[in-house]
Amino acid sequence: xxPVSIVGLVSSVLNIVxxxxxxxxxxxxxxxxxxxADMSVFLLIGQLSTxxxxxGQIAEWIKTExxxxxxxxxxxxxxxxxxxxxxxxxxxxLDDRVDQLATKxxxxxxxxxxxxxxxxxEQELNVYVTHLNNQVNALNLLLSAIQCRSLSKERTLxxxxxxxxxxxxxxxxxxxxxxxxxSDSALTxxxxxxxxxxxx
Length: 200
What we know:
It is a single chain. By secondary structure, the protein is an all-alpha fold. It is about 85% helix and about 0% strand. The protein has seven helices and no strands.
């Protein structure tokens, strides 16, 4: 992997870590403001913190060990790219959702109805927690592969049926998240269109 690609990869990881830190802080603030926040919010914060730590370890490994010495580790690089792509999409969607909540929370109009909206539908929260859990599993698997002392052990770990299932799940998660994002966008466009037609 050329030096420019390595720098881009490290930059991508650090960007995701930064957005995760922002979301953990925003969710913690919202949870503190609403002591009765659902346990799912607590789980979401925990998963984001774990994801941040795993990404930090991967970024540190890339900086210190570099991928230049891992050119023969094609599967590791491919799986890392799949994991980071899924992570970027998930964190981007989650960041938008947390920003919406933080904006509502910051406004003076947040009454009982707004507080109830804050406690997202349990199903939506569980979807995010599940996707985050899948990301954490994949990153932990990659961290285990990085620790392997030989190429054959790394390859055996990454090509095992269980490992392939983990990365296939990430690919499926990306499709699911993109569909969720697109359906939310369509709903927003329909709501704005309905609102505008009622005004005029």
